[in-house]
## 1
Amino acid sequence: MKEQNKKWSGRFDEPVDKLVQIFTASVDFDQRLALYDIQGSLAHAEMLKKQKIISATDFKKIDQGLKKISEQIMLGKFKWSVSDEDVHLNIEKKLTQLIGDAGKKLHTGRSRNDQIATDLRLFLRDITDEIILKITKLQKNIVSLAKKNINSYMPGLTHLQIAQPISFAHHMMAYYEMLDRDKNRFFDGRKRINQLPLGSAALAGTTYPIDRKFVAKKLKFEGISMNSLDAVSDRDFAIEFCFNASMMMTHLSRLSEELIMWMSPFFNFIDIADKFCTGSSIMPQKKNPDVPELIRGKVARVNGNLLSLLTLMKSQPLAYNKDNQEDKEPVLDSVDTVIGSLEIYADLVRHITVNKKQMLHYAEEGFSTATDLADYLVKKGVPFRTSHEIVANLVNHAVKNDLSLHEIELADLKKFSSVIQKDVYDFLTVEGSVAARSHIGGTSPKQVTKAISLAEIQLKKKLR
Ligand code: ARG
């Protein structure tokens, strides 16, 4: 009798080469989908019973057997074996060992091709919900930080040069907005994840009288795939998930970059609590912002994962190809990176202290209220382009005389434009400049307070 070490070994005259076995196995990583695999199998088996494709007795055995396996997996007692290739075959083999022939009936009307697609969708659906909760938590902490800093002024930068004064709260709320788009993207992608592929079998469907709607309902899928070829080969949902992960991590990388910059002594705008920083093995004085640095760095891998998946699917002929087994590791890596980063970030933002004095100092530097002066002239009837030129000349004068705009005497200001009056000084302060930008989306304390209240209401609502 020849060695029977594979489900299909009757087809072959010799066992699979050991190296090939190891090379083609995926159980080392797809075992993470085990509980979803069982969830899918239970729904499939129940449908087979309902449709009288298997007997009620067999279903009962399958149900009990799978639940026992599920317990073993959760307790970490399940023995995974590379010789059984993947999560599906490992579980099926164990089931047959436990319940005998009934276990061999579970795979009726199904293929691993629609099975893996189902597992991955169930997994990503849960992960999406978890990510949405974690983004919400981070947003809440960002909003609390903003709330404490409505009157903390800082220089807003463009080209990394001092541009116009803003509040630190307004700056933080920009990240709230980015994360809100990220959250909505994940939520939107959930619809496309949440479609049942099971029933497509290998590629062409199955000859059994299956009830796909029943399975979809059991597994809480909101739709059913309409083309069996597409269903087993579609990985769009995973690519989209990876893009959403990349986009979100890109936002975190921008915040990280800013925190790193602000914490450097050249800025000294913020401090991050010691417990979130690390030291140097050689320079005793160092306190390094390793967490934001690492998050900035981790964008590289999530972007790599996205590109892996896109490249994996490019030019792939229909329907299922073994190539698709390569989708798991990038997806899992993006999942772990996003979840880990969100968790640590939510806590990190609670440990930021703001150096208001230093920020204000730089908000007052660099002629940050020059635009306010130009706007002042416009309001006195000067055309904007002309006022822009007048203020440019004034700044030139100030630079040469080492003065700030508000330090220039009224008589000297008047030399540049006769419309300038004493009230000009109200417009040249940082507070005045920030308060004056009081429209939807502006940096004034009034508007930022409104934006924060809106965010707080939004954060209490469920997405829909
Ligand atoms: N381990 C495989 C995967 O991840 C499961 C599907 C295998 N199907 C097959 N016909 N070999 O895609």
Note: The first strand starts at residue 153 and ends at 158.
## 2
Amino acid sequence: MKNVLVIGSTGQIGSELTMKLRSIYSGDIVAGYIKGAEPRGELAESGPSMEVDITNARQIAEAVDRYHVDTIYNLAALLSAVAENKPLLAWHIGIDGLLNVLEVAREKKCAVFTPSSIGSFGPTAPKDGTPQDTIQQPKTVYGITKVTGELLSNYYNLKYGVDTRSVRFPGLISYVTPPGGGTTDYAVDIYYSAVRGEEFVCPIAPGTFMDMMYMPDALRAAIEIMEADPSKLRHRNSFNIAAMSFDPEIIASKIREHLPEFEMRYEVDPLRQGIAESWPNKLDDTCARMEWGWKPEYDLEMMTIDMLDKLSRRLSKP
Ligand code: SER
């Protein structure tokens, strides 16, 4: 049995992770939400939910007490592009919020998962085969909160024994809940345009490579790292994980193999392009593979087949 609190349960990752956790564990999987983003449908009906704003430590503590929570998945964040327009809010949610989670976890002995990102690296890190342990000097406030979050999470582990673990997610692609305000969002939006038979206007320039991952692999990573044998973990916050790396031309050609009429043109967004250029092309995930057996299942071909199939069914529903 496991009782889990998911903070940010109605977001891009949370909406799917909460359902997946409910399908695996027999305890209470609590969907924490903020006002205006209440769970709906299956997410609301399949288990308990509670208002838990990460910036409100009392709400986090109440949820942990009420449901005897042993693990907190902290998924609250502003994504990279939107964070550049709201840097103080990005810090408030990413760091003040994380400290609330870590303090509650310390007092009440919970394990904590807080995702980091490819965005935790900056232009000074090696771009290809970016190592697990290397220089992290991000240019974005999103990346700065992610590096700080990694350091704080390790600090709480070393100083207080809080069981903090995490992975550095690539851009995540899914047909369920769309992301909002990320730099990698184009790799989701492109499938929506393709399935709707619309031309896709790409905000990222050709030749810009970024790591990407299909959501089922990302959910598995988030669960497997928390299930891993701690005696085997040399790292904790945060593990590089990787599945595929492509630029807009490669994903567009892959889609055209299935939908030959698909068209794309470029209207590069300087904000997102600048962020993308500061990020790695491809992470080296050897440590995750060695320390807890990480292995992706989906490559670009498998993901594209599944995305096009699932999205066309979804979008054809009235
Ligand atoms: N998907 C995130 C973003 O683009 C990166 O982790 O902001």
Note: The first strand starts at residue 4 and ends at 7.
